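Entry for the shared binder. Reason: the reviewer on the internal report wants the predicted structure included alongside the sequence.
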Amino acid sequence: MNEDESGDVKEVKRNGITVRIRPTLKNGVTRFVLDYYANGKRKLVWRSTMADARASANNAIDKITQGQSEVLNLKAADAHTYVRARAALDGENGEIKIDKPLDEVVREAATVLRLLAGRATPLEVARDWLKRHEVNLPNITVTAAVEEFNQHCVVSGKSSIRRKEIHTVLTSFATAFNQEIHTLEPKMLSDYLTGLTVAERTRRNYRNVIGYFNRWLVLRGYLAKGTDLLDGVQKYSAQLHGEITTYSTEEMQRIIAAADERILPLIVLGGFAGLRHAEIQRLDWEDIDLADGFIEIKAHKAKTKTRRIVPIKPNLKSFLLPLAKQAGKVVTIKNTSKELGITAANTADVAGGVVALSWKHNALRHTYISARVAECGDVARVADEAGNSPQVIRTNYLKRMRPVAAAEWFGIVPK
């Protein structure tokens, strides 16, 4: 098939005038329609062949150019406007010539003005775009940038827990986007986060890590200044959803009996001091004052980045004294989640027909807070010790517990 027989629209351009030729079916036969403007009106002319259509297009351009019957009759003011417009396109004093028909330039300008709708001028938008793209961005892939960022986190002294979180999130992110950094767009990230099969809170954590990565990319020069890949992307709630889970005194005794000495500090600090798992993993023995009876959660080790003091209950002290060291990490196990799962599985007694307990996420902290409120009756005080607001304590952690049950919980001691 030669070019003239294809179904594509053709254009004949000459002397700043454009005539479009488009093939169309009429009564089952292909005809060619000339589409152009003359005398300020749109004209449609039908021809039976492409050759006739091209000839007619050139003829129309000649007539318009020569000022014959189809030329637009301009008044003096309009003619002056036309001349000035052509001069602006041609440029002066070494300016680049805009090699486009006047009607195309006007059409593009009109489209831009409609999009802006008076919120800014085309000149302001153009200058802003040039300012943000004045530096040629390096061609670096998402995978390469993630590897470099992980190294940055090591060098900058991020905690092992924080590095693990960043590595997990961004490894998944790099797998999803096998492309260069500067080609990412907010809609891509929105679709990615929406498609994750994770809980609302986890999706929020993913969004936060990606936002941190975005800011580093801008500082590193891999993204233009002011680039926000999360612009318009949905924000997710940090609220915990679902039932507030707790352990009974009998369940806690079984867990403690089944626990390895290396994981026991995490269990008793979570159950009898209400510390978060991540805070316990950051805790050093120097932070625990067994003599005066308090634990100091330093700001850089707390989830809320706020220092707090947590009292040591007598039963907790009795568990920690045999385990205490002069220095070093309180919990040295790297994969605490795995070890807690093993501990729960070890609560089974096959011979006695006792089924193993399942590990309940956050149940140690939930139980402590519920027991502590039942014991002292002061939600605000417990909220301060736990590092939360009273409202969050009431909605996310507090389960009704009788004072006698709280006394039993804090009465658990080593056998």
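Summary line for the report: The chain is about 50% helix and 10% strand.
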